[in-house]
Amino acid sequence: MARQAPPTGDIMRFHDQPEDVEGHHPGPDRPGLRAHLTMELATTPGLVHQLRTDLDYDPADPLVVSLTFHLPGDHPVVWTVARGLLLDGLRGPVGEGDVQVRPHPGQPDRIELQLHSPTGSAFLGASRAALQEVLQRTTLLVPVGAELPAEELDGALTRLLDGAAAGEG
């Protein structure tokens, strides 16, 4: 249903052991996080639709958060977004490509999320406090900076540099 004024958007509930979702199999050895958030999808100036959004975080893939948008009368749409981008977007404008996040100008309690794809763009709004709470819970599972063990990071950098060197020759 359409609304004239954006709702506040609150977390509805948390699951420390989220429901199974494709590609994510939580269990006692792999806790994850699923939060339900109401976001607003702006369709025309001044007209927004409430949109149920699931935010999923899997410690096995600690650099990203999956956002599942439940569109009325359509299949859910999933976007995978860098957790760091969302965290940085709580403090100031970030992103230059498909995903841009920033505090809402003039409404410091709101966050704007812009998603761009070849088929179109979406402009979404969310409660800053609700999004911050979800992201803070992810940092309890995997602290920022501890996403990859040093040996994995070293290996990834070596593979990247070896590939770049092979492409140069």
Tell me what the structure shows.
This protein is 24% helix and 40% strand. With 169 residues, it is of the alpha+beta class. It has a single domain (2-168), classed as Sporulation-specific cell division protein SsgB (Transcriptional Co-activator pc4, Chain A), CATH 2.30.31.20. Strands 1, 2, 3, 4, 5, 6, 7, 8 and 9 form a nine-stranded antiparallel beta sheet that branches. The protein is globular. Mean pLDDT is 80; it is low at 1-26.
What topology emerges from the helices and strands here?
Elements lengths: L1 E2 L7 E5 L17 E12 L2 E11 L6 E7 L6 E6 H7 L9 E6 L2 E11 L2 E8 H14 L8 H19 L1
Antiparallel strand pairs: 1-4, 2-3, 3-4, 3-9, 4-5, 5-6, 7-8, 8-9
Number of helices: 3
CATH superfamily membership? Sporulation-specific cell division protein SsgB
The SSE string, one letter per element, is EEEEEEHEEEHH
What structural category characterises the helix and strand content? alpha+beta
Which fold name fills CATH's third level, the topology?
Answer: Transcriptional Co-activator pc4, Chain A
Shape: globular
Q: What is the average of the pLDDT values? A: 80
CATH architecture: Roll
Number of beta strands: 9
Question: How many structural domains?
Answer: 1
- What fraction strand? 35-45%
- Unreliable segments (pLDDT under 50, ≥5 consecutive)? 1-26
- What is the terminal separation in angstroms? 58 Å
CATH class: Mainly Beta
